[in-house]
Amino acid sequence: DMTRPARTTGLRFAGRATAALEGASLVILTAQTALRAETTTALPAPLADAWSALDTAWDAAPLAFTTATFVKGKVEGFGRYTPREDARFAPGETMVVYAEPVGFGYDRVEDGYKVDLVADFEILNASGQVLASQTGFADLGMTARSRVHEFHATLSFAFEGLRAGEYTLAIALHDRAGDKSATLSLPFSVTQPTAD
């Protein structure tokens, strides 16, 4: 868990962020083959050409998102989540956001390629006033032997003190490896507290 001070206007915030690559089986495979020399095989020409075209387009593209949504329950991995039916939250309820960034860059490192993103957030009310924000809320990244394209971020937010009403959660991702940035905006509402 990661909790950092946030700039707020009377709100308390606690959050957590994780980033992961799909593949428990990949981890197991790596552990099983760690003692053997690494081998590669040649791809069929049409597939090799398509892969090369994907990398070229990826490098030229801006940072963007294929998916960004509030989710319920635990995120199990890339593409393995359950979206919420709505974006209505009870006061103080934890909000979990699942996002799939694309177009990010890579730093070449000894072990392969490093994805290196940092997330900021803002909570805005219906008139656009910033109620809470934090720069550098979460560091998201990973290192892999190949350039990964299936990368996701799971960000959790818990705000105390938000009154019933309409809000927007704005999350900015900054790509330190590719010098790119993108912002996603998720409208949500806080419901009236229920009587005990």
Walk me through what this model shows:
The strands form two sheets. Strands 1, 5, 7, 8, 9, 11 and 12 form a seven-stranded mixed sheet that branches. Strands 2-10-6-3-4 form a five-stranded antiparallel sheet, with no helix packed on it. It starts with 6 loop residues before the first strand and ends in a 6-residue tail after the last strand. The N terminus is likely disordered. Helix content is 13%, strand content 53%. The chain has 196 residues and is mainly beta.
Compact overview of the structure:
This protein has 196 residues and is mainly β. It contains two helices and twelve strands; from the N terminus they run ββααββββββββββ.
Question: Layout of SSEs?
Answer:
Elements: E1 7-8, E2 12-21, H1 24-33, H2 45-60, E3 64-77, E4 80-83, E5 88-89, E6 95-102, E7 107-109, E8 112-125, E9 130-144, E10 151-160, E11 165-175, E12 180-190
Parallel strand pairs: 5-12
Antiparallel strand pairs: 1-9, 2-10, 3-4, 3-6, 6-10, 7-8, 8-9, 8-11, 11-12
Radius of gyration, in angstroms, nearest whole number: 19 Å
How would you spell out the order of helices and strands?
Answer: EEHHEEEEEEEEEE
Percent range for helical residues? 10-25%
The total count of helices amounts to 2
Proportion of beta-strand residues:
over 45%
Q: What is the CA–CA distance across the termini?
A: 30 Å
Strand tally: 12
Largest sheet: 7 strands, mixed
Uncertain ranges: 1-14, 16-36
Globally, the shape reads: elongated
